[in-house]
Amino acid sequence: MQPSGKIASLTELNKRSRDQLILQYLPYVKRIVHRIATHLPPEVDIDDLIHAGIIGLMAAIERFDPQRGIKFKTYASFRIKGSVISELRSRDFLSRPSRRQIRQLENTYQKLEQDLGRSVGDEEVAEEMGISLEKFHQIKKMAAISFVNIDELGLTAKDQKQDVFSWLAPYERNDALTLTGLKELKAAVAEAIEGLPEKERLVVSLYYQDELTMKEIGRVLDITESRVSQLHSKAVIHLRIFLKKRGLLD
Predict the structure, then answer these.
(1) HEC assignment per residue over the chain
(2) pLDDT tops 80 at residue 16
(3) Would you identify the CATH topology of the domain 96-150+163-245?
(4) Residue ranges of the chain assigned to CATH 1.10.10.10
(5) What is the per-residue pLDDT across 102-112, written as a single tens digit (0 to 9) for each?
C-alpha cells in the first residue's frame, strides 16, 4: 500500500521523526526506483539508486512547505526521482557510441515514417539501419532511458502540475521565462501523447499517470512484459522526435 501523502501541516511533519517518515515512504522509493530501473542495463546497481532515492526523500522532508499547496507525496516524488536521475547522470552510463546509435535510430524512424506516411515496424527500422532485430531492441531500450517525460515528475492533476511549475521557478524572483518554457513543454508533451498510436498512448497513460509497472500493464493489456517495454520505448522515441521538431529537445 502506497503512502497517502497527506501531511496536514509543518507542525505535524515536525512531530514525526525523520526515521519514521523514511520507513513509511521507503516502499514508495523502491517502487519509483524499480520503475526507472526497468529501462536500465543490468550492470546498474539498484541499491545505489535506492540510496539516492532515500537522499531525495530526506531532502523532501527537510524542505517541504505545506503552505505552498502541494501534497507531501507529490513533492517527495519529485525529489526522489530527481535524486535518482541525478545519480544516473553522474555516471553517464550511455557512452558516446550509444548516443550516436540512439540518434541514428530516431533519425531512421523519422525518415521512414515521413517517406512511407505511416507508423513503421521494428523489423523495417532494423533493416534500414542494417542491424539485427536483437541489436535494434537494445538501442531502443537505451533510447527509452535517455528522455524524462514531464509526467515522470509523478504529477497527474492539472492543478498539481501548475503548482509544481511555480515551485520549480525561483520563489524570490519573477522568472516568467522559466514558467513559460515549462508550460510550453507540458503542452507539447500532451500534444505528442495525443498523436501516439492507440497502444503506445495507452501504455504511456498506464505507466506515467496510473503508475503501473511494466508487469502490471502487461496483465491489464494481456500482453507480455517485454511487449509493454517495446511499446513504451517506441512511444518515447516518438515523443523525442516530436519535441525535437518543436525545438524543445536537443
Answers:
(1) CCCCCCCCCHHHHHHCCHHHHHHHHHHHHHHHHHHHHCCCCCCCCHHHHHHHHHHHHHHHHHHCCHHHCCCHHHHHHHHHHHHHHHHHHHHCCCCHHHHHHHHHHHHHHHHHHHHHCCCCCHHHHHHHHCCCHHHHHHHHHHHHHCCCCHHHHCCCCHHHHHHHHHHHCCCCCCCHHHHHHHHHHHHHHHHHHHCCCHHHHHHHHHHHHCCCCHHHHHHHHCCCHHHHHHHHHHHHHHHHHHHHHCCCCC
(2) no
(3) Arc Repressor Mutant, subunit A (1.10.10)
(4) 96-150+163-245
(5) 889 989 988 99
